[in-house]
Design brief:
The complex is a heterodimer of chains A (about 325) and B (about 250). Chain A has about 325 residues and is of the alpha/beta class. Helix content of chain A is about 45%, strand content about 20%. Chain A has 2 domains: about 130 residues, Nucleotidyltransferase, domain 5; about 170 residues, 2-Layer Sandwich (Nucleotidyltransferase, domain 5). Chain A has a 5-stranded mixed beta sheet, with helices on both faces. Chain A is globular. Chain B has 2 domains: about 120 residues, ATPase, nucleotide binding domain (Nucleotidyltransferase, domain 5, 2-Layer Sandwich); about 90 residues, Nucleotidyltransferase, domain 5 (2-Layer Sandwich), CATH 3.30.420. The chains are: A alpha/beta (about 325), B alpha/beta (about 250). Bound molecules: zinc ion (ZN).
Amino acid sequence: MRVLAIETSCDETAAAVVDDGRQVRSSVVSSQVDLHARFGGVVPEVAGRAHLELLTPVVEEALARAGTTGAELDLVAATTGPGLIGSLLVGVSAAKAYSLAWGKPFVGVNHMEGHLHAAFLEDPDLALPAVVLLVSGGHTMLIEMTRDGRYRLLGQTVDDAAGEAFDKVARFLGLGYPGGPAIDRVARGGDPAAIAFPRGLLHDGYDFSFSGLKTSVVNYVRKRPDVELADVAASFQEAVVDVLVRKARRAAADVGARGICIGGGVAANSVLRQRVVEVCGVDGLAAFVPSRAMCTDNAAMVAATAWYRFRRDGATPLDAPADPNARLELE
Amino acid sequence: MNVLALETATPQVGVALLGDGGLLAADRVAGGRRHGELLAPMVAALLGTAGLTVAELAAVAVDVGPGLFTGLRVGLATGQALSAALGIPGVGVTSLEALAHPHRRELGVIAAVVDARRHEVFRALYRGGGPGLVELSGPQVATPADLAAELAGLVGEGPVLAVGDGARRYAGVLAAPGVEVGGPLDAHPDPAVVAELAAVRLAGSRPGRGEVGTTRLVPVYLRQADVRIGWDRREGTGAERGSDAEVGSGGG
Ligand SMILES: [Zn+2]
C-alpha cells in the first residue's frame, strides 16, 4: 500500500512516499529555519506563507523522487495536529484536495504519533514494550509503547518543552537560532561538570520541568558575565540530558521495557544520543536511536502512521478539522 | 469547459461550478473559522450536484484575496493541489474585483472594500458603465477615514457605490451625499463571479480595458507578516501558555 504524506505542522514543509508503512521511497523536507532565524523562533504568519509557496513543489519532488504518480497511490495523508493552525491548514487542505483529485482516501495523522512511528521506519524489529522519549521545541513526553503497539503517557513537561529551553538559553547566550544545534556545537568545547545547574523534578515521578533551569542559567551568567560560554552551554546541556535519560531509564525499569527509543528534534542532540546508547548498554536494553533526519519533523513518519491508522480505523472524513491542540490518543 | 471556483478569503466559504451553458451549481455558507473543514466536502458535493467528475474540470479559479490570511490559504492550497494533480490551469481572481464585477454596468465609481480588521480595509476603485470594469486604483490597505475622504473626492465624477463587508462595517464613516453603501448581498465575493472572471480570462477575451487581477494562484496579502503575533505550540496539555515568547520554538 503506497502512501503520500504531507507534514506542515511547524517550520518544515515536508512530503514523503512510503510503501506499506516501512519502505521509504522518498522523503523531502524543505526547512524554513533560515526564514525564522532572524526572529529567534518560528513566526506563525511567516511559516504559513512559506508553507503555501513550498508545498506544491515539495509534493511534486516527493512523487518524482519516488518514481510514482498520483494514480499509483493508495492513500493521501497529512498531519492534522498538534501544531500551528495556519501551517497545519495548508498541508491538510492540500492533502484533501489531492485526495479528491486522485480519488484516494484521506487519512489525518497526529504529529506526535508520527514521531512515535519514526523509529519503526528504521528499525522494524523494535522490541516492545519500549519507553519512548519524545523531545522537541513543542513537546517533552515520556511514553510507554505496550506490546500491542498502544501508548501510555508516563510523564510530560509541566512548563517549557526541552527544545524550548534550548532555544531560550541559546537566545540568551547570543548563540542564535535554532538553539539545539547551536548549544550542541558550543558545548563540545566546554566542561559539562563546570556548573551544577538544577535538575528539575529529578526524583518526582516522570514529569519534567525546565523553566527553573533556564532561569538558573540566566541568573548565573548575569552574576558572572565573564564565565566561559562553552562551560555554560555544556553544563546546561548536561542538566537537560541527565534528567531526560535518568527518567527514561527509571521508567524502562519500572514498566519492564525491552528498550528505550528517542524522537523529536532534541533527539538529534549528540550527547543525548550517546547517553541513551550508553545506559541501554549498561542496563541490557535495546537503544532505538533514529537517524537525525528521522528525529526532526518529516513526512515519512506521517506516512508510516497513516498506513497503520488506515488499517486500524479506516479513512478520515474530508470535514475533519486541523487541531492545533490535538492530543496523542493514549490508553 | 467546466471551471471550479473556490472562495475562502472572507468569513464565508463559497464554491461554484461554471459550465459552457452557464452556472451548473454553487454553494455559499458562513465559514467562521471553519474554512478547512468545509471546503473539501463542499467541492465534493458540488461535483455530485452537477453530475461531474474531477476529470471533467478544465480549470480551478480561486479568490486569492486580499482578505483573511488563514482562510485564503485554505482556498489557495486547495486550488494549487487540484491544479497540480489534475494538470489544469489555476486562475487567481482578487476578492475586490469579484466584489465589484456584478456592478460593472452601473455608471460611476465602484469601490470594493474588504474588512481588513484592526480598523483598516483592503480596497480598490473601479469605473463602471461599460462591458467590463476599468481599474482606477488597485488593491491597497486604507483606514476607513482615508477611504471616506477619497470617495468624497470622487463624487464629482458621478455616483459612488461602495460594496463589501468593509463598506458595510464602516458604512457610517463612508456614507455621504453621492456615496452609497451596498447591501448584505454584496458583502462577500460571489464564487460564481470568481468562476466567471476566470472563464473570461481563460477564453482569452478581455472584458474591457483595464482588466485586473492575477492569473496565477498567488496570494494577495497586502500586508507584511505580523511578527509580533506569537503562538506557542505546546502539545498534549491543551493548556494555555503564559509564555513571554513572541514566537514559538521549532525543532521537530
Ligand atoms: Zn515534531
